[in-house]
Specification:
Layout: E1 4-8, H1 13-25, E2 31-34, H2 52-57, H3 64-82, E3 89-92, H4 99-106
């Protein structure tokens, strides 16, 4: 089975419980990964990793929470690259995986079968 990463925030216990129960029902091993919390503004240490001006010029207005979400995904991508993980599943803690996902993952689709 491919590694599964669930993006969450440290205080989102109810969301973590729901997806944890779901993934355990499917017998899918997973790891929670804490993301960047932008709910109260983007933490200053992340400002150097975004370009607000270019985003606006591209016609997009992103909230700090949206920037934080993007940065959180990028951190997981960096880990996948650093650990040379060929395939991975990335979910947010509010996702509810369907049985079809497990059928897809266990059906050899990613193993070339």
């Amino acid at each position: 089975m491919i590694p599964a990463f669930v993006l969450t925030l440290p205080d989102c216990h109810q969301r973590q419980s729901r997806i944890s129960a779901s993934l355990k029902r499917f017998d899918l091993p997973f790891e929670f990964v804490n993301g960047v919390d932008g709910r109260n503004g983007l933490p200053p240490e992340y400002e150097s990793q975004i370009d607000r001006v270019a985003t606006r010029k591209a016609g997009r207005i992103l909230s700090d929470a949206e920037f934080a979400c993007s940065l959180s995904h990028i951190e997981i991508y960096r880990r996948i690259v650093a650990e040379n993980i060929e395939y991975a599943l990335m979910l947010a803690d509010d996702h509810q995986p369907l049985p079809e996902l497990m059928e897809y993952l266990s059906g050899g689709v990613l193993s070339g079968c």
